[in-house]
Design a protein that fits this description.
This protein is mainly α. It contains 6 helices and 2 strands, in the order αααββααα. A two-stranded antiparallel ribbon has the order 1-2. The N terminus is likely disordered.
Length: 204
């Protein structure tokens, strides 16, 4: 998969979401209930809030692939389904499958209450999965190595849309990262994340 045509445009081919979805699902086994209140690299979001976001995101963006209308639900730790360990892997798998369907990346669709090209929504979907997989891993002290092919897709997307001001509802203000840093570190910085972020040490 190419990463663009040299003018700042990212690849319009729908990426395979399965590797990124699988990486998130694999993290769930290392996430005890005691970690649900822990902070994440996403400011003001606990692990439970992030999980609720992933629950809603996976359903909503699968609907986007099917060209069905979607809303923009607000993630909340209080709304997290107590059966998230059983439900979330299935939703992630269904999300990946929905974007594999013929025509999923063609035409227009809606996401979060906005209408945009389906190919753009596919790029946003991969970006969300890769970045939130890292968020979840860092928050819970687990290793996380994204597929280099996924990084090659999301980096041009982030280069096109990441900025010092950020993108409300999508990215925070970009965090400076050395130009010779690894590609994923640069992607994290453009998304408003500090690649050096670590969960605070537990006390008690």
């Amino acid at each position: 998969m190419s990463s663009g045509d040299g003018d700042g445009q990212y690849d319009m081919t729908v990426p395979d979401l399965e590797p990124a979805a699988h990486r998130i699902a694999a993290l769930l086994g290392g996430l005890p209930d005691s970690a649900l209140d822990a902070p994440t690299p996403c400011a003001e979001s606990s692990v439970a809030t992030l999980l609720d976001h992933l629950m809603g995101l996976s359903e909503g963006l699968a609907a986007s692939a099917r060209k069905e209308p979607t809303g923009a639900p607000q993630a909340s730790a209080d709304h997290l389904d107590p059966d998230w360990r059983a439900i979330l892997p299935g939703r992630l798998g269904a999300l990946a499958a929905a974007w594999r369907e013929p025509g999923a990346g063609e035409g227009m669709t809606s996401a979060g209450g906005l209408t945009m090209p389906a190919a753009d929504v596919a790029a946003v979907t991969l970006d969300e999965l890769v970045l939130h997989g890292w968020d979840l891993a860092r928050a819970t002290g687990q290793p996380y190595d994204p597929d280099p092919r996924d990084v090659a897709v999301i980096l041009p997307f982030l280069e096109a849309f990441g900025s010092e001001q950020g993108v409300p509802g999508l990215f925070g203000p970009a965090v400076p990262v050395p130009g010779d840093a690894p590609a994923f570190d640069r992607a994290l910085g453009l998304s408003g994340r500090d690649p050096a972020w670590r969960a605070p040490a537990a006390t008690g």
